[in-house]
Design a protein that fits this description.
- The chain has 165 residues and is mainly α.
- It is built from 4 helices and 2 strands.
- A hairpin with a 5-residue loop joins strand 1 and strand 2.
- It is elongated.
- The relative contact order is 0.11.
- The model has no long low-confidence stretch (mean pLDDT 87).
């Protein structure tokens, strides 16, 4: 019976996507509160759930292909095709999973987009603050000499700003 196996994997997938939404909400709250010292933990937790989802996606693909073969459908058939070819109660179960997954992924995309916007806004504020720190030109920085006194360093200075989040 591959349909019960597929349903079990779909439940697990829904749980992990819900957990990912929760982790992104936590990350969003930390960003809004300015708690940058905790962001690394939140990002690590998000990455862990994403890795779990990647493994589960492979399992879901295998379970779906077994169910498709059992129903006489080609490998790679979608949930709506599997639901159409299956008998009750599996038709309703698969359609319910499909609707829930669509809703969860919509919520997930909205959270990810909001977090990206907050991070981009924060980056812009940091850049503006860095630019307003003094009368240094873009190719000048302050270093220190051997005695500990400020010493302007001029020339083309390397700068790395990661704009991709």
């Amino acid at each position: 019976m591959s349909l019960p196996d597929l349903a079990a994997v779909l439940w697990r997938q829904r749980e992990l996507i819900e957990r990912l939404c929760y982790r992104l909400e936590c990350e969003q709250l930390l960003l809004a509160a300015g708690r940058m010292n905790r962001i690394a933990f939140a990002v690590s937790e998000v990455e862990t759930v994403v890795e779990d989802l990647q493994v589960l996606e492979l399992q879901r693909g295998e379970a779906a292909d077994r169910a498709a073969a059992e129903l006489g459908l080609p490998a790679g058939s979608g949930l709506s095709d599997l639901a159409a070819a299956s008998q009750p109660p599996w038709t309703g179960v698969l359609l319910e999973h499909r609707a829930a997954l669509i809703a969860l992924t919509t919520e997930l995309h909205a959270l990810a987009d909001a977090n990206k916007a907050m991070i981009s806004s924060g980056m812009a504020l940091v850049e503006a603050a860095m630019n307003s720190l003094g009368s240094l030109s873009p190719h000048q920085a302050v270093g220190y000499d051997a005695t500990g006194h400020a010493d302007p360093v001029t020339g083309r200075l390397p700068a790395v700003i990661d704009r991709v989040l």
